[in-house]
Specification:
There is one protein chain. This protein is an alpha/beta fold. The chain folds into two domains: 269 residues, Aminopeptidase, CATH 3.40.630.10; 114 residues, Alpha-Beta Plaits (2-Layer Sandwich), CATH 3.30.70. The chain is built from nine helices and 16 strands. It has an eight-stranded mixed sheet with strand order 1-2-4-3-5-16-6-15. It has a four-stranded antiparallel sheet with strand order 10-12-8-13, covered by helices on one side. A hairpin with a 6-residue loop joins strand 1 and strand 2. Helix 1 runs antiparallel to helix 3, helix 1 crosses helix 9 and helix 7 packs across helix 9. The longest helix is centred in the first third of the chain and has 25 residues. The chain starts with 5 loop residues before the first helix and ends with a helix.
Length: 397
C-alpha cells in the first residue's frame, strides 16, 4: 500500500533543492537579458531541464522554450516570462546585475526559477510513477515589450492540446507566504496612442494668425481623459495617461508641429473593444475645437487578463492545501498590462499574485531596488505544484 502524500514529498524535495531554486534565481538576476535577447537565459534553463532528465524544445530564435512532462491527451500549462527591464540595478547584493542598465525589476527571474522548480518536481513524480497527467512548462520571451512574446510561443505550438494555463506574478504588496487570487479581471488591456499635429506657426505676439498647437495639444492632454470617462458608465474605469508631450522650443514662437503619446488602460474585454474608437473620436473633436486637426496612430496592446472562475478556485484551493487557508488573499484588480492574457483568450486558466514582500519593506516592481524575499520561491513551487495537479484531476478544466 502506497504511503505517498504530496505535502510530504514536497517537504522533502524543497528541503533538498531549495538552494538550487535560489541559485537559479540569483544567476538569472545577475545575468539579465532584455526582451527578444533572452537566448542566454533560455539556454541556461534548457540545460537545467536536461540535467533533470527532461526534454526541452527551443523555439527557432532561441529566446523561448517549452518542456512536456508526463502523458495524456490534455495538457496543463505553466508559464514563466524571462526578460528583464532597461533599469539600473543599485542593490549591493552578491547577485546584483552584471549588465549595465539592465535589471530584473519585475520578478521574472523568480517566475523562471519557480516554474523550473515545478518542472523538476513533476519530473521526479513521474520517475516515481506518481504523476497523473501531462504538463507543459512555457518559458517565454518579451513580456515587457510590445509586440510581446506570448503570441510567439502560441505560434510555435505552446498551447497545442492545452486545456488550462496557470502563472504567477510577483507582488511585493503581499508578504512571502501569501498568494493573491482574483476571479475575473485581474489586469487591464493596455493600448498606445500617438497624436501628431501640424499647422501654421508664427510669432507669439500674433497667435490669431497661427494654428496654436501648444494650446491644442495641451487641451488634448487635459481634456480627453476627462471627457472619455464622462461618456462611459461611471462603474467602468479607463486610465488615459500621457507620458510624452512635445511642442516647440522657443518661448516666443508658436511651433508648426506638436505631438503627445499616451497609454490607454481599461478593465474587461468589452471595454477593450469599445474604448479605442471612443478615445480617437474624442481626441479629434478636442483638437478641432482648438482649431487643429491631428493624425492618430492607435496601437492595440495586450488584452486584459481575465481569470476563469474554476481556475481561480483551483488556485485558491491549492494555496490552502499547500500553505494553509491563511495564505489565501484577495488580489485587487490592476491597471497594469500582462501578456499572459493572450493564453487566456484561447484556454481557461488563471494568474495569481505571489507574495514576495518582506515585513517593513515598501518596494514596488519596475524599480531598480526591487528584490524578493527568497522564501517565496519555495512557496511558489509548493502552490503551483498543487495547482496544476489539481487542475489535471479536475473534470471542469
Amino acid at each position: 500500500m502506497s504511503t505517498f502524500t504530496l505535502p510530504d514529498f514536497l517537504d522533502g524535495w524543497i528541503s533538498e533543492h531549495y538552494s538550487d531554486l535560489v541559485r537559479v534565481r540569483r544567476h538569472i538576476h545577475a545575468n539579465p537579458r532584455l526582451s527578444r535577447q533572452e537566448q542566454d537565459t533560455a539556454a541556461y534553463v534548457a540545460d537545467e531541464l536536461r540535467e533533470a532528465g527532461l526534454k526541452p524544445e527551443m523555439i527557432p530564435d532561441g529566446t523561448g522554450l517549452t518542456c512536456d512532462i508526463g502523458d495524456g491527451d490534455q495538457v496543463i500549462a505553466i508559464r514563466a516570462d524571462m526578460d528583464a527591464l532597461p533599469i539600473h540595478d543599485p542593490k549591493q547584493v552578491p547577485y546584483r546585475s552584471t549588465v549595465d542598465g539592465v535589471c530584473h525589476a519585475c520578478g521574472h527571474d523568480a517566475h523562471t526559477s519557480i516554474v523550473l522548480g515545478v518542472g523538476k518536481v513533476l519530473g521526479a513524480l513521474a520517475a516515481r510513477g506518481e504523476l497523473h497527467g501531462r504538463f507543459r512548462l512555457i518559458f517565454q520571451p518579451s513580456e515587457e515589450r510590445f509586440p510581446s512574446g506570448a503570441p510567439t510561443m502560441i505560434k510555435h505550438g505552446a498551447l497545442q492540446d492545452v486545456s488550462a494555463a496557470f502563472a504567477f506574478h510577483c507582488d511585493p504588496n503581499f508578504l512571502a507566504g501569501q498568494v493573491g487570487i482574483r476571479n475575473g479581471g485581474l489586469t487591464a488591456a493596455c493600448d498606445l496612442m500617438e497624436v501628431n499635429m501640424t499647422g501654421r506657426g508664427g510669432h507669439t505676439s500674433r497667435p490669431h494668425l497661427t494654428t496654436d498647437l501648444c494650446d491644442a495639444i495641451s487641451r488634448v492632454v487635459v481634456e480627453v481623459p476627462s471627457i472619455v470617462n464622462r461618456l462611459l458608465d461611471p462603474r467602468q474605469n479607463v486610465a488615459i495617461v500621457f507620458g510624452s508631450v512635445q511642442a516647440g522650443e522657443a518661448a516666443n514662437a508658436i511651433p508648426q508641429k506638436a505631438s503627445a503619446k499616451a497609454t490607454i488602460r481599461m478593465q474587461g474585454r468589452e471595454m477593450s473593444e469599445e474604448v479605442p474608437r471612443l478615445v480617437q473620436d474624442v481626441t479629434r473633436n478636442v483638437a478641432a475645437a482648438a482649431g487643429a486637426t491631428c493624425d492618430i496612430t492607435y496601437t492595440r496592446g495586450v488584452p486584459p487578463v481575465v481569470n476563469d472562475r474554476s481556475a481561480a478556485a483551483t488556485f485558491a484551493g491549492a494555496t490552502s492545501a499547500a500553505l494553509g487557508q491563511h495564505a489565501v488573499a484577495e488580489a485587487p484588480a490592476s491597471m497594469g498590462g500582462e501578456d499572459f492574457a493572450y493564453y487566456l483568450e484561447q484556454v481557461p486558466g488563471a494568474m495569481a499574485r505571489l507574495g514576495v514582500g518582506r515585513p517593513g519593506e515598501k518596494l514596488d516592481i519596475h524599480q531598480g531596488n526591487f528584490d524578493i524575499d527568497e522564501k517565496a520561491l519555495a512557496y511558489g513551487v509548493r502552490v503551483m505544484t498543487h495547482t496544476v495537479l489539481a487542475a489535471a484531476a479536475s473534470p471542469v478544466l
